[in-house]
Amino acid sequence: MNEVIELYSLHDLEVNSIALLLEVPNGTVKSRLHRARNQLKAYYLAEQVAEQEN
Hints:
This protein is mainly alpha-helical. The protein has helices at residues 3-10, 15-22, 26-53.
């Protein structure tokens, strides 16, 4: 799992806190979070399609 989504979702850290922790700009955290959500969504949708085919 992407570390940004883990820190945000599982550890309830805010974007600013994650940025400080990882020493990256807030925008980078937001971009990584967006990308990770899209990857999770694609994975979930692919799993649904696979289940429907069986």
